[in-house]
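Re-run requested by the PI after the first attempt was lost when the workstation crashed. Everything re-entered from the original request form. Ligand of interest: flavin-adenine dinucleotide.
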Amino acid sequence: MMSAPADASEALRDSAPRPFWTDRADAPQACAPLTAHTTCDLLIVGGGLTGLWSAIEAKAADPSADVVLLEAKEVAFGASGRNGGFFSESLTHGIAHGLALWPSEMPTLLRLGRENIAEIIAFLESEGIDAGLRMCGKTAVAIKPHQLDELRESTALHQEFGERAVMLDADAVQADVHSPTYLGGMRVLSGGGLLDPALLCWGLKRAAIARGVRIHEGTAVTGLVSDGDAISVRTPHARVRAARVLLATNAYPPLLRRLRSRVLPIYDHVLVTEPLSAAQLSDIGWSDSQGMTDSGNQFHYYRRTDDNRILWGGYDAVYYFGNQTDAGREQREQSHRLLAQQFFETFPQLAGLRFTHRWAGLIDSTSRFTPVFGTAMGGRLGYAVGFTGLGVGASRFGARTTLDLLANRSTERTALQLVQRKPFPFPPEPLRYPLVQVTRAALAREDVSGHRGIWLRTLDRFGIGFNS
Ligand SMILES: Cc1cc2nc3c(=O)[nH]c(=O)nc-3n(C[C@H](O)[C@H](O)[C@H](O)COP(=O)(O)OP(=O)(O)OC[C@H]3O[C@@H](n4cnc5c(N)ncnc54)[C@H](O)[C@@H]3O)c2cc1C
């Protein structure tokens, strides 16, 4: 690594401690909280992408269904309004990971992932939702020599599975995006792109309301109990008696206790710069404005915004003892400073650029980096959590799968091992925290040396991992 520029802290000095995407004057007005008892056919808990797609798809399956969505804060408050906006067809956290876990299902999983994003695009078009979607693919870069072989293998794998991918040498990748740190890169032209996640959430919120979904924001669900042939749902001011309940609550404290062992709440940190000047834009190239990631276990993801800022996130994924998810965790000076330093190492020509926004978002990591699906309470409660940092596209697949499970419908989706089998559980505290720290340290060592140590190889044998 090059030495850190001295002005990282200075560059952060005036940044606002809130997500960039939702910080807009034209944010929609929040729906009123729930204040009176009610009943419904389906109650959805959580107003992120998983919850919103669940509402829209439930109405598509049965327009007469009475659907209520309750959100503790406001729509897009969680990961769905805080992410990088990378829109991917992958349902398996990448091709290599899917192949390692479900080799025989991979062709089906790829097809379902491609159908999923095609249907999302068609939906946005038919609803007139402008979420700034650009199907520009992405580039993954090597910044350490050992990552070059991994990228070559990854390029071959992408090609084998029908993606348009090419390996670029250092000169070619640096000619595209001007960073002295790049040693090579894989340019993938298919399989996804970038969007504005807040505009997506707000567009889906409008579409759900237009279909008759009753949305209440500022309404936290505080408990669920069986109530004859329904579920009684407690909120601060009123109860809901719902025939079915769908939990779309990411890694926030789970309303169903068993989810604690399957989902690890991890905070992922993000910065956004001020808009770049024309001179600064020409200093970095990047004419396709595609999404960028570097390789390694601890990786950055970065992209340009429509108004020529750079969003820069990732690397320092933090787990707090005892699954803490209080709002105080959304700011961590150490992580934001580290991110700022790494930004200027990647783009030294941008020294002097300032950050306007800094935040963190909650990632629901599972030990196999794909969601856990299931039902409880006699099949009346369904859940889709654990998208592990790749849920912008996959959340719609997760929503549809959980609706299938709740309706007791056997479909191609519900037959998948990805759906039927649960990820390996994480141990409870006080073991959980030290094991996560040991694993993070082992991953960081591998990033430096290129060698997978004995601890990680042991976890691999059980199909267990730590990722954001
Ligand atoms: C920093 C960051 C970057 C990411 N980048 C990408 C990316 O570039 N591409 C990608 O594909 N994925 C990315 N992800 C992941 C992606 O954002 C999520 O997987 C996706 O948005 C799906 O979110 P969700 O709806 O399941 O959860 P959320 O959006 O978190 O929604 C859950 C909602 O449930 C509400 N809630 C929780 N408990 C209750 C309760 N008891 N009562 C009522 N409401 C409750 C919360 O307030 C929250 O709004 C990223 C995530 C983070 C945090």
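Saved to the shared folder this time. Confidence is low (pLDDT under 50) at residues 1-5.
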